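Entry 14. Ran structure prediction on the chain below.
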Amino acid sequence: MKRGNVLPAALLLSATLAAQEWEIDSAHSSVQFAVRHMMVATVRGQFGKLTGKVRWDPNKPSEAGVVAQVEVASIDTREPKRDAHLRSADFFDAEKFPTMSFRSTSLTPAGPGRHKLTGELTIRGVTRPVVFDVEGPGQPVKGMRGELRTGATATAKINRKDFGITWNRVLDGGGVVVGDEVLVTVEVALVQNPVK
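Output, C-alpha cells:
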C-alpha cells in the first residue's frame, strides 16, 4: 500500500468506530450453558438464535451498551426429548416466554482486554442483576464484503432458581437430577456495515 493511502484508510476506520453501533451476527454467535446432571456429569447445550445491538468505542469503554435477545425455542442439548422438556413449563416455558433478554447497565475495566459487564437478565419474565466477565472486543478486522467485524466472549454463573426455574427430582440415595448453578458462556460476533 502506498503511504498516501494509509491516512485515508485510518480515518475511515476511525469514523466507522466512532459510530459505535454493532449488530450481533446471529449466524456466528451463541449462548452456551453447562449444568450438573444427576450429580455425576455435566450437561452442555446452547441457544442458537441470539440477536441484538452493541454500542462499543474502544476509546470510551465506559459508554458501552448491550441489548440482546435469545429465542428460547432455539435450545439444543443434542437430545430432542430433553430439549422438549426444557422448552416446557417445567423449565423455560417457551410458549409463554419465547425470549430471554439482557440489557447492560455498566462496563468497567478488569485488566488488559477484559471487562466486567453488569446488566439485567430476564428469564421467564423474572429480571435479576448479572455480572459477566468479558474478554474483548478484539481489534476490528475487515470482512470479505467490506464490513467491519469483531467479537467477544462473556461468562457468568447464575442460579436457575432465581429466575423461577425450580423443577427437580430427588434421586434414590440422595442428590437431585438437575443442579442449581448454571455456567453461561456467550460467544458473540459483531458486525458493522462500512461507511458509504
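The chain has two helices and twelve strands. Will compare against last week's run tomorrow.
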